[in-house]
Amino acid sequence: MDRLNLAFTFLGRLLKEGHRIDAIIFSPVLKCLCSGDRMRDAALLLHKMPKLGAVPNGFSYSILINGLLSYGNTDLALQLFFKMVKIGGEWEPNMVTYTTIINGLCKESDLTKAFGLYQQMYSMGIIPDIVTYTSLINGLCKVGALDRAEKLLLTMVYEDLKPNVVTYSTLINGLCKHGEIERAMVLLHSMKSKGHEPNVVTYNILIDGMCKNAKIERAMELLHSMKSEGHEPNVVTYNSLIDGLCKHGDIEKAMVLLHTMKSEGHMPNVVTCNILIYGLCKNGEIERAMELLHSMKSEGHKPDVVTYNSLIDGLCKHGDIEKAMVLLHTMKSEGHEPDVVTYSILIDGLCKNAKIERAMELLHSMKSEGHEPDVVTYNSLIDGLCKHGDIEKAMVLLHTMKSEGQMPNVVTCNILIDGLCKNGEIERAMELLHRMKSEGHKPDVVTYSSLIDGLCKHGGIERAMILLHTMKSEGHEPNVVTYNILIDGLCKNAKIER
């Protein structure tokens, strides 16, 4: 019997034996229902509590509000909150209730309502605490209102509320996520000068921010600083640095760092391995990536679908389709279910290696296994068919994807328009352009460049010039490719002056 059933059994016994029960006894049951995604049952129990002799109090409502917010039901949570305000008395929302709802609104980026409640707190004589301010700072950072977030930090200090490491880390995180590394470093020094010691989370945020902003050297310096100050880096720290080095093309330094973290007793996890395997594959070092997979398995790390997708992608990009297919069977045999990304990678690889029939077979296989192809899957197949000269099959596939509820995007249209133009079917390509517009797809510079190229190559230079003016009038700026196509077309059509 689970905890919830035990609680209900206990409540039932108390009621049956005639014991007087109050709202406090119901609190654990409400919490269990909310954490178990049984919000409707929790609301029903709250409604029935008075009939059972237990009038809900403010804490009872706060439990339900917190549950609603955790499942994204902000509107219902607000309704319940304002009901508490209206009833008043012992149901009057307290500082915890206000902070809970403010935090939920900030997570939804509804800052107008969040700050409205913040002001209401003051009018009710409820002083916001550090958690309230940290929630508001987090909300401001999410929407990029960094100046307001910094001012709010100063407001805390002015009101004799000392920001803690969580508050500082929240603001540092916001600054880093918006590329404001220098401001984040100033804040780090400021918190230190005020006696607030940063923790490993603070350093991880900064190191990750530096790596994501291509400041690898400074991130490495910060790693040494945190160590010298007695802060032990963890696997998250090293993962950020290894990822930064891989993205920067420094695979060897990333591998050295892997050995460093191991020597310090920090065991890499599946994320570490995935970062390195992806980096090695991107660098064309497929054999080393495969070796790392075997090493990973021997050390007890279980690869996941991300690991296999990176390796399959690497093999496909280097033309090793057969090895990629073997790896698909390996992952299945090990109990790792391929996803739509896995199949899309393989289908794209098969198409790019002119194995269209096998790609189509794989499409049917993925469908039969219950995997729904997406627009990326279909784009790869349509592109492969067009490049293979099978325009009609590509058009049939377009209708198939639509019938399955997969709407084509601008990439799909561009592939087909380019294929039709290369096949000399300019009129059909122009028809597709008009249909594309009527269906709400906005053509881009690639669309127009393909059509202009097709017109130039088939003697429609005047129409190509008209299309150039059309694309400009629609706000699509021609690029160097567009102009080169036109210049080449004009020269070949003996219109040198133009």
Largest sheet: none
Order of helices and strands: HHHHHHHHHHHHHHHHHHHHHHHHHHHH
Q: From the alpha-carbon coordinates, what is the Rg to the nearest angstrom?
A: 30 Å
- Helix content range of the residues, please? over 70%
Number of strands: 0
Estimate the strand proportion.
under 5%
Number of helices: 28
Shape descriptor reads: globular
Average pLDDT, all residues: 88
The first-to-last residue Cα distance is 85 Å
The secondary-structure class comes to mainly alpha
Q: Give the low-confidence spans.
A: none
Family: Belongs to the PPR family. P subfamily.
GO molecular function: mRNA binding
PPR repeats: 22-56, 57-91, 94-128, 129-163, 164-198, 199-233, 234-268, 269-303, 304-338, 339-373, 374-408, 409-443, 444-478
Keywords: Repeat, Transit peptide
Describe this structure in words.
- The mean pLDDT is 88.
- The protein has helices at 3-16, 23-35, 39-48, 58-70, 74-87, 95-107, 111-123, 130-142, 146-158, 165-177, 181-193, 200-212, 216-228, 235-247, 251-263, 270-282, 286-298, 305-317, 321-333, 340-352, 356-368, 375-387, 391-403, 410-422, 426-438, 445-457, 461-473, 480-492.
- It is globular and about 90 Å long.
- The relative contact order is 0.03.
- Among the domains are: 1-93; 269-335, Alpha Horseshoe (Serine Threonine Protein Phosphatase 5, Tetratricopeptide repeat), CATH 1.25.40.10; 339-408, Tetratricopeptide repeat domain (Serine Threonine Protein Phosphatase 5, Tetratricopeptide repeat, Alpha Horseshoe); 431-498.
- The longest helix is centred in the N-terminal third of the chain and has 14 residues, at 3-16.
- It has 498 residues and is an all-alpha fold.
- PPR repeats lie at residues 22-56, 57-91, 94-128, 129-163, 164-198, 199-233, 234-268, 269-303, 304-338, 339-373, 374-408, 409-443, 444-478.
- One of its GO terms (molecular function) is mRNA binding.
- Belongs to the PPR family. P subfamily.
- This is Pentatricopeptide repeat (PPR) superfamily protein.
- Keywords: Repeat, Transit peptide.
